[in-house]
Amino acid sequence: MPHKKKINFLFVFLFAIIFILGLINLKKITNFFSVIHKKTTAYIFYITDTFASFKYVYLTKKSINDLNRRVLFLETENKLLKTENEKLQQLLKIKEEIKIKKIKCYARVIGANNDGFVYYYLIDKGRKDGIEEGDGVIADGFVLGRIVNVYDGTAKIQLLTDVKSSISIKNERSKVTGILSGNGYNECIINYVPKEEDIKEGDIIVTSNLSKSFPEGIKVGIIKEVDKKAEGLSMNIKVKPFVNIFSVDLVAIISK
Fold first, then answer.
1. Which of 47, 119, 164, 256 is 20 to 30 A from 28, alpha carbon to alpha carbon?
2. Residues 6+ apart with CB under 8 A from 239
3. Nearest CA to 122 among 145, 92, 89, 142?
4. What is the spatial distance between Cα 113 and Cα 121, in angstroms, rounded to a whole number?
5. Are 188 and 241 in contact (CB under 8 A)?
6. Residue 33 sits in the same domain as residue 117
7. Mapping DSSP to helix (H, G, I), strand (E, B) and coil, where does residue 6 land?
8. One domain, residues 13 and 133
9. pLDDT per position in the chain (256 positions), as tens?
């Protein structure tokens, strides 16, 4: 019997030792996994936050770019509207400034010749708008040319710089008259002015009362060169038009 008690005691003792060792190992194991869990969790949160930050930066940058594009679009649109308004205001003042009796209509340039230097424009108004051959055309308040062909919904403008163009003009200062013809590119010349007449560089040229397409007094250009040593009885006179024929988009059509 005593022997049996010893065996039981030994068994209990061993079990206690195993249990204590187990608790120790279990605590170590628990601590080990707890550390791993914390580090893993922190790492996961770090990665998640990093991706969230990247996404935020990307979306923010995209929003800024979209906003910049929108601002640029609005600024461009505003400039175009401002320019358009200024041109319309200028055209509306033409009638009062140069005493035009009747402006038939306003039109937009929709085409031009494509075989070298520009010498005619096509506009988006025509016969149905009351336009007729010979009507004068103004751009930015200055002489641009005259209507030479009319169709139902469009019309062709012969520019004052076309070599086939001829407009009756006068010197605003000295009142000397002549015929203005095109000289190609963006230049004109005045024909049939005797050498003894009072013509100087810098003089302003306007339409005369003999013009069939324009009322008197519309500005045409400025004299940039006078050559009185040319052959013949007439001097050579070069004129730079006030209107820039390469940047016209809105015009006014004037009655004959």
1. 47
2. 180, 187, 188, 189, 190, 205, 220, 221, 222, 223, 224
3. 145
4. 7
5. yes
6. no
7. helix
8. no
9. 555 555 555 555 555 565 555 544 555 555 655 666 566 665 565 566 666 666 666 677 677 777 777 777 777 777 777 777 776 666 665 555 455 557 889 999 999 987 777 889 999 999 999 999 999 999 988 999 999 999 999 999 999 999 999 999 999 999 999 999 999 888 999 998 999 999 999 999 999 999 989 999 999 999 999 998 888 889 999 999 999 988 899 999 998 6
42 SS3 class: helix
Q: Cα separation of 120 and 113, whole Å?
A: 6
**Which DSSP letter does residue 136 get?**
E
- Return the bridge partners of 180, or none: 167, 190
- Spatial distance between the Cα atoms of 235 and 212, rounded to a whole number of angstroms: 25
What angle is formed at CA 186 by the lines to CA 180 and CA 192, rounded to 5 degrees? Answer: 20
- pTM greater than 0.85 (yes/no): no
Question: For residue 199, what is the domain's CATH number?
Answer: 2.40.10.340
Are 140 and 90 within 8 A, CB to CB?
A: yes
Q: How far is CA 25 from CA 11, 28, 38, in A?
A: 21, 5, 20
Residues 6+ apart with CB under 8 A from 150: 126, 127, 131, 132, 133, 156
DSSP 3-state of 96 = helix
